[in-house]
Design a protein that fits this description.
heterodimer, A: 303 residues, mainly alpha, MetI-like fold, B: 303 residues
């Protein structure tokens, strides 16, 4: 009996031959849920984006149509926001990568000898997750406000001009995006670097590669899955974010991103078709960018 | 939720999380380090790591410190130390902060229960059964994690609008459950995959009915993964603002409360709640880490 059990386990380690009826029973509720509350909303969004205002209707009343003009309208009205979204998100992704790589390298490679320290540092990396994202951002706003200690001392040292501002500028928004998404960058980098076999690095330096060459030709390629995962996990939410860029947080009137105009159109102006068209543009652009990026970095199997 | 689970979950469908074997191999190969050769690296990287953690923790410390501020209305300038805000959290604005907090907890608990149930069922089916639509289902689970929150939020709001469903607590719960399911699947799937099928085989050999085998063998073994997934989805739901904002109508949640009051100044009571949640989560995570370390030590002694 035991031998038979062993044999079947050998032959099909993870796929017992049970009827697929059970699989269907297990899958159906969750999949139906996602179809109902994820896929259909995307279809609703597409339909809404093509709606036209109801004739003689009130503000916020629309009817189904094939009004692709909406897309032209939002592109002409909001092209700076679209560019800004992707520009800010790209900058934040680059900064987060530069910030996180040495940190993840230290936790994942240098701290291997001290597992307790390693887990403590991981807790510190995810610690910001435990405190409200909005309050953290507001804390930065106050720490870096014009009257704050940091800014006044920078001005006293003439490192900043006398009427320079930080909050309300693109720098502040990029700073906020970078800060808020650092854990999303650090964790996948850590996971990749933690598995790095150091013998490869030794082999490299035994073959007279200098430390920089070893890093560029061995460490970076081996941590590529982490880099790709981290940049995607930072870029996607950063491009859609509207908290950091909001006027009450780190942004100003000239830093509004796509998320801000989607929110304003949907919840304030009740211009649902414009909000929907912008959402579809954002989603499509991200899918295309992600597809190209994953293909070029040679990590298709990640998906 | 432990660092690794967070890491695995954040990594989402992007990377498989079978790290244990590989990392053990990496650890063994640590060998003599080459730090001596680089010289600079031996102190540069640790210093950088410390500074990076200081940077990551600044807003958290700020939020915590300002929960003790003897502020009157807005909590911007430091006016002296007091315990009052901690003792009378619910006394401000007729308890608006506490009401928002309570709503967030209710939404988090209900969404977590539904998402964990549905997600666990999917995870078991994905690992244990072979079926044809597998890749389509994997894509359906991956997409919600790769879609910007503003698109998810606007999409659902457009759907509720089209169907004519009024926005209230139920719509928030429906929305939160949707984006939590994928994270649950990813977290639990790793656990199901690491389960030894021989244990269930043994249960069947001892004449256990399928139900008995599941509830007495499989389910207890899956519990750590399910608990981690539940904690993760609660954390995601509790801190979500963007999707909530589109689907909440007039219902207030804690993040929404912070966002709305940001323009006129956040009362210190919000800092109190955020700090309390932070401390609670920190204790939970460190407790889990310590108990896991103790268990590992015990197992090492046995083996």
């Amino acid at each position: 009996m035991a031998f038979a059990a062993f044999a079947t386990a050998e032959a099909q380690p993870q796929a017992p031959r049970k009827s697929s009826r059970i699989a269907l029973f297990l899958l159906l509720p969750g999949i139906l849920y996602l179809v109902l509350f994820f896929l259909t909303p995307l279809v609703s969004l597409l339909l809404t984006s093509l709606q036209a205002p109801l004739e003689y209707g009130d503000i916020g009343q629309y009817q189904y149509a094939f009004n692709w003009q909406n897309y032209v309208d939002v592109m002409t009205a909001y092209w700076p926001h679209i560019l800004r979204s992707f520009g800010y998100a790209l900058a934040a992704t680059v900064f987060a990568l530069l910030f996180s790589y040495p940190l993840a390298y230290f936790i994942g490679v240098k701290a291997r000898r001290w597992p307790l320290l390693q887990s403590l540092m991981l807790v510190l990396v995810i610690a910001p997750f435990f405190i409200s994202f909005l309050l953290r951002t507001l804390a930065w706003k106050q720490i870096l406000s014009d009257e704050s200690f940091v800014i006044t001392s920078l001005k006293a040292l003439s490192l900043l001009g006398p009427d320079a501002h930080f909050t309300g500028t693109p720098f502040a928004v990029i700073f906020g995006l970078t800060y808020n998404f650092i854990p999303f960058m650090t964790l996948p980098l850590y996971t990749a670097l933690e598995r790095l076999d150091l013998r490869y690095l030794e082999a490299g330096s035994d073959l007279y590669a200098n430390p920089f060459t070893v890093f560029r030709k061995i460490t970076v390629p081996l941590s590529m899955p982490g880099i790709v995962a981290g940049t995607l996990l930072t870029f996607i939410p950063a491009a859609g974010d509207y908290v950091n860029a909001s006027r009450d947080f780190l942004g100003g009137p000239d830093t509004q991103m796509m998320g801000n105009v989607i929110e304003a159109n949907f919840l304030v102006l009740l211009n649902y078709p414009a909000a929907a068209a912008l959402s579809i543009i954002l989603m499509a652009a991200i899918l295309v960018l992600v597809g190209v990026y994953v293909k070029r970095s040679g990590t298709e199997d990640l998906l | 939720m432990s660092g690794e689970v967070q890491a695995a979950a954040v990594l989402g469908g992007l990377a498989e999380s079978e790290q244990s074997e590989l990392s053990a191999r990496g650890r063994r190969s640590n060998g003599p380090t080459r730090q001596g050769r680089i010289g600079l690296g031996s102190w540069l990287l640790p210093t950088y790591t410390i500074l990076a953690f200081v940077f990551l923790l600044i807003p958290i410390v700020y939020t915590f410190v300002f929960s003790f501020n003897d502020s009157v209305k807005s909590n911007i300038a430091w006016r002296g130390f007091t315990f009052d805000k901690w003792l009378n959290v619910c006394n401000v604005e007729g308890g608006a902060v506490c009401e928002a907090f309570a709503n967030s907890v209710i939404i988090g608990v209900v969404a977590t229960i539904i998402a964990t149930t549905l997600g666990t069922m999917i995870a078991i089916a994905l690992v244990r059964y072979r079926f044809r639509a597998r890749s389509v289902i994997s894509l359906l689970l991956f997409l919600p994690m790769a879609t910007p929150e503003v698109v998810l939020g606007a999409g659902l709001a457009a759907q509720f609008l089209a169907v004519g469903v009024p926005k209230d607590m139920t719509t928030i719960i429906l929305a939160h459950t949707m984006f939590c399911i994928s994270f649950v699947v990813v977290t639990v799937k790793a656990r199901v995959a690491s389960l030894d099928p021989a244990l269930e085989e043994a249960g069947r050999d001892l004449y256990g009915s399928p139900a008995q085998v599941f509830w007495r063998v499989t389910f207890p073994l899956l519990t750590p993964g399910i608990v981690a997934a539940a904690l993760l989805s609660f954390a995601l739901s509790f801190d979500d603002f963007i999707i909530t904002n589109f689907n909440s109508g007039s219902v207030s949640t804690f993040p929404k409360y912070v966002y709305i009051s940001a323009s006129r100044g956040i009362p210190a009571e919000a800092n109190v709640i955020a700090s309390a949640v932070f401390l609670f989560a920190l204790v939970l995570v460190i407790g889990a880490q310590v108990s896991r370390a103790a268990r590992a030590k015990r197992l090492a002694k046995l083996g």
